[in-house]
Design brief:
Structural class: mainly alpha
Oligomer: single chain
Order of helices and strands: H
Strand content: under 5%
Helix content: 10-25%
Distance between the termini: 81 Å
Number of helices: 1
Shape: elongated
Radius of gyration: 30 Å
Number of strands: 0
Largest sheet: none
Length: 84
Amino acid sequence: MGIDTQGMTAPADPNFKGSGKPQKHKPMMIYPRRLHTPEMVKELKILINEVLDEREGKTGQSYFDSNAFKHRINEPEPPYEEWK
């Protein structure tokens, strides 16, 4: 009799018989890791669309113009309007 610190030894009872049936295991689930947070993705999409709109000659208020969107803490952020 000894202490099993790794959990790899068989049961101490020599008369123990396991079930003998193999266990079914599902394949491991893989979750993809993304470089950008969902908030960064949203801002990148807005930026890309603004660049493409500007390239087509459309004009509007840039989402990244922080002076246009400044507000007090107790007020909601001004709405972003699409370029026209």
